[in-house]
Specification:
Elements: H1 2-7, H2 10-41, H3 43-51, E1 53-58, E2 61-62, E3 66-68, E4 75-76, H4 78-90, E5 93-98, H5 104-109, E6 115-120, E7 130-132, E8 137-138, E9 141-145, E10 161-165, H6 169-180, E11 186-190, H7 193-201, E12 207-211, H8 212-219, E13 226-233, E14 236-242, H9 246-261, H10 264-274
Parallel strand pairs: 1-5, 1-6, 10-11, 10-12
Antiparallel strand pairs: 2-3, 3-4, 6-14, 7-14, 8-14, 9-12, 9-13
Helix pairs in contact: 4-10
Length: about 280
């Protein structure tokens, strides 16, 4: 071929090389298109549509998001109701599969379940193996204070007393604020988050740095303490799906957005985290 090519005129040789390059580019494009089409088919989503069943992994040991009902032995909680709402919108049946928390991501990666929905954060180190939905709940660190305290965010804490649990991320953030804010803050450290919140209600502290879930469960919608401003540290909960399930991921994101707009997520929060419950 090299000898034949050398015998061609410069113009024909150039045309041959251009034609070869174009052919190679078209071949690469075709292979990429085929790969995209194969991924776009999404075997996981197709299986859900064909069987009418969405297999969802949960670790039922984290109330009020998921735990086993003492009377029936069936899983109940925020995530259980959310999974049911999503399945209803798709016209399929949700099948809850009990799996230990540490095994949920691997179970999704191995296709033993279609999704994991169990108060799960984004595991950045597993982003090559699985995909993450849009957040449906933020369990991050918040600043809790009485409505009448005149506190709208961390910058209002200069010269004030801030409660937190010893050794918690609230403790670490309070110490950081003490260093950053002019006039600093006075730390009021307690041995538990409820005790830190008690300190605010007792007047021993002006505000507390605690996780959003702990604040909601402590106050149960009574309005004694509220989360002021934006979360100090975000900790979003997401739904995890196989990395090669783009249609399932898109369906989840679309449905979660609709459930948020329709007020369903807000009602689930009120039901499971704010209303007085006995469990």
């Amino acid at each position: 071929m090299r000898a034949d090519l050398a015998q061609l005129s410069p113009r024909r040789r150039r045309a041959w090389l251009i034609g070869s390059a174009v052919g190679a580019a078209l071949l690469v494009a075709a292979l990429l298109l085929l790969r995209f089409e194969i991924r776009g088919r999404d075997a996981t989503w197709a299986h859900i549509q064909q069987t009418g069943v969405w297999r969802v992994g949960m670790d039922p040991s984290f109330p009020p998001f998921e735990n086993l009902d003492a009377a029936t032995g069936r899983p109940v909680g925020f995530d259980v109701d959310l999974a049911q709402a999503i399945a209803d919108s798709w016209g399929v049946r949700v099948e809850i599969v009990s799996i230990g928390f540490d095994q949920l991501v691997d179970a999704v990666d191995a296709k033993r379940i279609d999704s994991a929905l169990s108060a799960l954060p984004v595991f950045e180190e597993r982003a090559r193996d699985v995909s993450f939905s849009r957040p449906y709940f933020d369990a991050g660190l918040v600043l809790a204070a009485p409505r009448s305290a005149g506190i709208s965010g961390p910058d209002d804490l200069a010269g004030r007393r801030v409660a937190a649990e010893w050794g918690s991320r609230g403790d670490a953030e309070a110490r950081a604020l003490k260093r950053r804010l002019a006039g600093g803050v006075t730390l009021v450290l307690r041995d538990s988050i409820p005790a830190a919140l008690d300190a605010v209600l007792a007047g021993d502290a002006d505000a507390a740095l605690v996780d959003a879930v702990d604040l909601a469960l402590y106050d149960r919608g009574q309005g004694r303490l509220v989360a002021v401003g934006q979360p100090v540290q975000s900790d979003p909960y997401v739904i995890i799906v196989p990395v090669d399930a783009p249609r399932l991921l898109a369906a989840l994101d679309e449905t979660l957005a609709a459930l948020d707009a329709d007020g369903v997520l807000g009602r689930l929060r009120t039901q499971w985290l704010e209303e007085n419950r006995t469990e």
